Amino acid sequence: MTTVQRSLELDPAIQAVEVKITAQIGDETMVRQALERSGEEPEHRRVYFFDTPQLALFDAGVVLRAREIAGGADDSTVKLRPVDPTVLSDAWKQTEGFEVEIDGVGDETICSAKLSADQKRDEIEGVATGEREIRKLFSEAQEQLILEYAPTNVTWPDLHVLGPVNVRKWKVDPKGFGEEVVVEEWTLPDGSDLIELSIKVEPQRSNDASAAFMSFLDENGFTTEGDQQTKTRATLSYFTGGAGFA
Known about the structure:
CATH topology: Hypothetical Protein Pfu-838710-001
Distance between the termini: 22 Å
Number of domains: 1
C-alpha cells in the first residue's frame, strides 16, 4: 500500500500528493466498462517529450514535456524528478506556476517540482514538424530552471522530439468513494497502452486518503499489487528504441 514519507509530507513546500496506480492488463477491461457506465467524456491530449537519444535529461532528473489539449490551453512543462524540497531556493518556490508535489506510484514515493507555461495553438505542432526550435516552447523562467538542473553538456541542438503519445483523460466521482479519481489512458503508436488511476489530495490527508483509495480499489476487484510502470519512463523508452508499455 502506498504511504507517504512523513518527513516529506510535512515539508511546507509540498503543495499536493498524487497517489497513482497502474492498471494491470487483466483489469483494463473493468476500468473501461466503469468509465462507460460513468457517462463521462474524456479529454483528448497529445503529449511530446524532448530529450537526447540517450535520455541524458531524464537520467539527470529533468523532464521536458509539451501537451496539446483538445478544447483547452496547450502547455509546456519542465519537471524535476526527484527533487529535495528542502534545498529548493525560495526564489523558485515563490515563482508563479512553480509546483512541488509528491508522486506515489505503488510502494514508491518521489518528490517532484514543475514549472509550466501556456502555449498558443499550433506552436507545439510547429516544433514537432521541425518548423520551430524546441527552445521556443519554453519561457525565460523555464530556461533558467533547465540551466540550473540539466547536465551542462546537453545543449538545445542535442534534443530530439519524442512523441507523440495519445492520451485520454477522465475525471470521475465513483460511488462510495469520497475523492475525485483521474483516469488516464496513454496509447503509443504501436497500439500498446497503459491505464493509470490517481487521486490528488492535500499533504496532511495523504496517508488516510491513500489507504482509502487502495481499499476502495481492492473492494471493487482491482489488483493493487504487481509491477507499476511510470508513464514517462515507458514512453521515453519506446521513442528511443526500447520497449514501451508491457
